Structures are given as C-alpha cells and as structure tokens.
Amino acid sequence: MGCGTIASSPSGRGVPDAIIIGQIAEKFTAGGRGGKGNDMETPDRILRLRHRILDYDWGSPTAIADLLGIANPDGKPMAELWMGAHPKAPSAVETAAGWIGLDELTRRHPDLVLGPALRRRFGDAFPFLFKVIAAARPLSIQVHPDAAQAARGFARENRAGLPLDSPRRNYRDPNPKPELIYACGCFRLLCGLRDARKTAELLGRLCPSGLMDEAAQLAADPGREGLKRLVAGLLALSGDEGRERRRDLIAEALAQSPRLNEPGLGWIAHLARFFPDDIGVLAPAWMNPVILEPGRALFLPPGTLHAYVDGLGIELMADSDNVIRGGLTPKHVDAAELLATIDFAQSGVHEIAPEPAGACETRYVPPVGRFALSVIRTRPGASFRCESGEGVEILLCMEGEGVLEEAGASPRRLAVSRGASFLVPAAVSSYALSGELLAFRAFVPQPVEVNRFSFPHAT
Ligand SMILES: [Zn+2]
C-alpha cells in the first residue's frame, strides 16, 4: 500500500475480541500452569517465541500474513500480533519442558527473565507490550491514561463490580499506556488536537451553518478550556437526542470538505464510509491528520487523543490494555472519562528521532524508560552484536535469513527466518545476529539513553 491510497475494507462482520489464530493455545499448558516450574524450563538462554493474533474486525486479512509469512486460509482479519506477557494474550515460550506462557515464565523466574536491574526499576511486571498492527480501516478515537489515572480507574471499576472482560470497562489493568508507533508502510492517523484557532477556522468553513456558534466561541477562547468545551459539545451529540443535529452536521461536512483544500479533510468522507452516523467523522477538522512515512515513529504520551486510520506498523507500549474511547467504534464510549483524560494543553504530535547506533541498528527511544525499539538490518560482513545488560528483549525477524548466536558457557546458534521471534532473557549477557535480514528489537533502554526527545511540527 503506497502513501495516499486507502486500504480496502474487510468484511464488516462482528467478531469477538481475542480469537487465537494458530495452534499456540493448547501448547500453553505443556509447561504446567500454576506450578513452581522445573529446571528444564530455566530461561537462562535465548528461547523461541510464538504469539497470538487478535482478529479485531478492523484488521487486515493480508498485511500481517504477508509480512510474516503466516497462512490465513479463512481470510480472518488479523489486526494485532501481541508479543509480551499481557494476560489477555501472552506469548508462548519454547523451553526444554515444553511451551509455557511468557507471563507464567516471568512469574516463576523473574531474576532470569527480567533481571535484578529491571526488577528494581519496574517491579516484577513485564516492562512492555510489543505489537504488529495492521489496520485496514479506522480504529476508534481513543486516549490512554497515565499511571495515577490507571490505578484510580482500575480500582474504581473493580469496586463497581465490573468483570474484567466487561465491554463497559475502560480499565483492564492498573497500568499507564504510553505508546510508540513505527510505520512499516505509510501509516495514517489522527493524533492530538489541532491548534484551536485553526480548528475554529476549519469548523466555520466545514459546517458554516451547523457549527457557526461553536467556531465563534472557540475563536474567542482558543485555550484549553475552549477546546474542551468544543470536544464535549461534539461528543454530546453521540446519543439519541443528538441524532438529528448529528446527521445535519455530517451531511454538511461531507458536502463542504471536497471544496476545502485542506490536508486531512478528505479523510472525513473515508471515515463516514465506515461510520456514517458517528460524529467522530468530523475529527479531521479538530485533530491533526498525520501520515507517517515508512521508518518514521511517533510517541503518544498518556493523554494524547489519537485514532489510527489505516496502515501497517509496529507498536510498543507499556504492558497495558487500558483504552478510553470517544467515537468511531461500536465499542463502549465514555465521553466523561475521555474528557477527564485528554491532555488539552499539548498538540500531541511528537516524532521520535531515529538514532543510528552502529552499522546495523537504528534506535527509537521514547522518553519513558520502559521500552525502546531497534530496527536491525544485517548483511554479509555487517552483523549486529548486542551486549545486553539492562534486561529482557524480544526480537522479531521481518525479512531475510540469518543466524542468532548466543555467547556464554554453552554457545549455540539458532536459525532465523521471516516471522521467527525470540525472547532474550536478562540472564543472556550477549548475542549476535548475522546474515541478511531485517529484524525489530524491543528492549529496555539504559536510564541515561532516555533523554532525547523532539517535538516537531504538526502536519
Ligand atoms: Zn492507542
């Protein structure tokens, strides 16, 4: 898919949240859940991983399958491949005692998997959740909480007796969810709020009869309170009472947007194809439209409103599934919680500058300390050597073939090919990747690395 094209939509059938594709599930129990483990499973060397793919209905049936060489005979949507220990879809690790969930392995052997340094910094939770995401059509407008909000919200919903899998839940765990998104192809998203004066101007031109008052109010009060009032007013049109006005506004926006030569406003018609009766289709007028070119990455701090439009990317985030939605979704929308979580003071488009680190590696280090992404390209004569030390890593090979060599008392070599994935536990002190391949590496940066952060333009 090239930049500027729109991915075709898969069938819009309703599907549950976490169907497992592949044969990982039955193998999960092979190492024995709930026990203390045994010497055979000791994670003191590099181990193969298998992952689950979630089939959210916005997922592409082909992008992840093509990328990693996975069969998808039924043509199911493959939305997200999860690499990590989150209880919703933990990866499976191949040990000498059989396949075992990464969550379980981490619980049993935290010093070997995470290492003492990480345990001191972040406790015994796995530090990150690493994903491949393939959006064939738009995802919800959403925001993620910071640490204090997540802890409060999780406790509140527990007290209210909401089951963990309730569709009305915003908080499925007590963790914050800062995110990094890296574009494999062109990746389109709405990210953060446009400048308030710009939004006032655009709304006045987009809906000259329907939103004249809102545009004038925002122009008169272009600060965070003015923006909050605007977003609250639009979200209030989501219910039954707002139906008539909502229809008029969407119709007016669809009629006007092709005449306005303004980046992103063409996306209104695209969003309306999937959500014809959702006031969120007006979001390109008040959120920043961003096209991430391949190889570029953004950091989404907690509080940043965002909505992925389409594309194939790599995501890296804290180990959390806390999502508060505001539209463009059939799922639970919580406008009050959304308004309380959005950071109206910042624009929200934060590019992470790629940092070359040696001949084979480019690093993307967001300012959160818990996770960073490396893109590794090896070729004959240029291999990647890693003196790991800070803690656990996950590797995913995207292209090519090569060899993963582990140093230490009992050195060994593992074959690497497209789609192969590995856990590098903290107990492994160094390894090398060679051959001709492209791999992605999720790791925990040294504290000193987390200080380079750019705030570029909104596009
Ligand atoms: Zn998100």
Short structural summary:
With 459 residues, the protein is an alpha+beta fold.
Architecture blueprint of SSEs:
Blueprint: E1 47-50, E2 52-54, H1 63-68, E3 80-83, E4 92-95, E5 98-101, H2 102-108, H3 110-113, H4 116-122, E6 129-135, E7 141-143, H5 147-159, E8 179-183, E9 187-193, H6 196-206, H7 212-220, H8 224-235, H9 243-256, H10 267-274, E10 287-292, E11 297-300, E12 306-317, E13 324-327, H11 335-341, E14 350-351, E15 355-356, E16 361-364, E17 372-378, E18 384-386, E19 393-406, E20 412-417, E21 421-424, E22 431-443
Helix pairs in contact: 6-7, 7-8
Description:
It is a single chain. This protein has 459 residues and is of the alpha+beta class. The protein has a domain of 90 residues: Sandwich (Jelly Rolls). The chain contains eleven helices and 22 strands. The strands form three sheets. Strands 1, 4, 5, 15, 16, 17, 18, 19, 20, 21 and 22 form an eleven-stranded antiparallel sheet that branches. Strands 2, 3, 6, 8, 9, 10, 11, 12 and 14 form a nine-stranded antiparallel sheet that branches. α6 runs antiparallel to α7 and α7 runs antiparallel to α8. It is elongated, with a radius of gyration of 23 Å. The two termini are 21 Å apart. The structure holds zinc ion. Zinc ion binds next to loops.
